[in-house]
Structures are given as C-alpha cells and as structure tokens.
# Entry
Amino acid sequence: MSQREYHIVVLGSGGVGKSCLTAQFVQNVWIESYDPTIEDSYRKAIDVDGRHVMLEILDTAGTEQFTAMRELYMKTGQGFLLVFSITSQSSFYELAELREQIRRIKEDDNVPMVLIGNKSDLEEDRAIPRPRAFAISREWNIPYFETSARRRANVDEAFQDLCRQIIMKDQANRRHMREDAYGGNRTGRTPRNPKKRHRKPKCTIL
Ligand SMILES: Nc1nc2c(ncn2[C@@H]2O[C@H](COP(=O)(O)OP(=O)(O)OP(=O)(O)O)[C@@H](O)[C@H]2O)c(=O)[nH]1
Ligand SMILES: [Mg+2]
# Structure
C-alpha cells in the first residue's frame, strides 16, 4: 500500500513545551533555551501498528500575536496535540477555547486529539492535579498523557496515539466514500450504478 501522509498540529499556550516535545519526537534532542516559535514544520516517517506513514508536524505559536494563522492550520490539520504545562493553570484552561475553535472550524465533533500535560518532571511545581486533567479528557472523550520533553517521557506514546486515531478516522472516511460510490452496500445488495444516482429529476412538458 502507498505511504499515507498525515498533518498533525501542536497547540497550546506559550512556553508549555510544544517545540521541545516536537524536537524530542522528531530529532531526539532536548532544548533548554526558550525561543518563542512563530511557526515551524517538520516531517517524520513512522510505523504505527505495522503501517508506514509520513507525518507533517506543525509546531505553532503560543503567543497571542501570531494567532491569525490559526484558522488555516486548523482547517488543514487532521490531528491535534493540545498541550498544557502541569505547572500552569492558565495554560490548562486556555485549551478549552482552542478545542472549541477546532471543532467549529472543522465542523466535526470527533476530530482526533490528545490532551498533554507536559513538564511532568516538575512534580513539585504541579498546579493541575492529575485527576483534574483526567476529568477533562474524559469529558472531551480524548486520551490524556503526562509527558516530559526534558526526560523524553511519554513523547512517542502521545504522538503514536494521535496517529492511530487519525488512521482509524481516515480508514472510516474511505470506507464511507467507497460505500457511497456503490450506493451504500452495507445491506449486501448489488451495488447500484453510481451514474444513476445523479440522474436529474424527470421534467414533463405539458
Ligand atoms: N522542566 C521542563 N522544562 C521544559 C519541558 N518542556 C519544555 N521545557 C522548557 O520550557 C521552555 C519553553 O519550551 P518551548 O518548547 O520553547 O515552549 P513552546 O510551547 O514551544 O513555546 P512557544 O513557542 O512560545 O509557544 C523552555 O525553556 C524549555 O526548556 C519539560 O518537559 N520539562
Ligand atoms: Mg515553540
């Protein structure tokens, strides 16, 4: 089968660790310094359950002045990492609006997403209790991962989970498209001629 390409977007407030998570996932490097992102994109080929896929990963800006690009990447993105820092309450609460915006722009209530509480190595500075984050992830019906970009903990797992969701959705979409082309063959009936389905209504001239 040909290699599929999927678009992933990394979202969240400034300084939560989006770029560090992306750098760890793509290049296996740890970045100590903080250089606010405008927008960077990376490509990485991975295997998910034996399937070879190419990921296009967009690392976005957390700071407000760059949010004009949001609508565009929300349209093209197929899966979203919603990242907050476990040490920052505001970064956690700001995700609700981003999630709403994604659902609105994509006109879809089941967009592949993962909730990420990053900086899990800073347990002593924790501001969001784990049960609080789990409660939100259950409410949103998406998985929750606590990651540490510094220690490279749970990074692959979070990206892999998102890819799995995207692949499942892609397969379901393709199945529906095939079924539509054959007039909905879920009943086991003989496929209808796709051309016939688009026949114009009859016009009778009196
Ligand atoms: N202790 C700890 N620090 C982290 C972790 N991830 C990121 N940092 C630090 O947090 C700061 C910000 O990280 P970035 O990855 O640049 O944050 P960002 O979300 O990309 O920020 P913007 O590009 O401004 O939106 C850096 O100094 C990182 O070293 C982590 O898991 N643990
Ligand atoms: Mg960044």
User: Anything to note?
Assistant: The longest helix spans residues 155-181. The two ends are 55 Å apart (CA to CA). The chain has seven helices and six strands. The pocket of magnesium ion (ligand 2) is lined by residues 18-19, 37, 59 (CB under 6 Å).
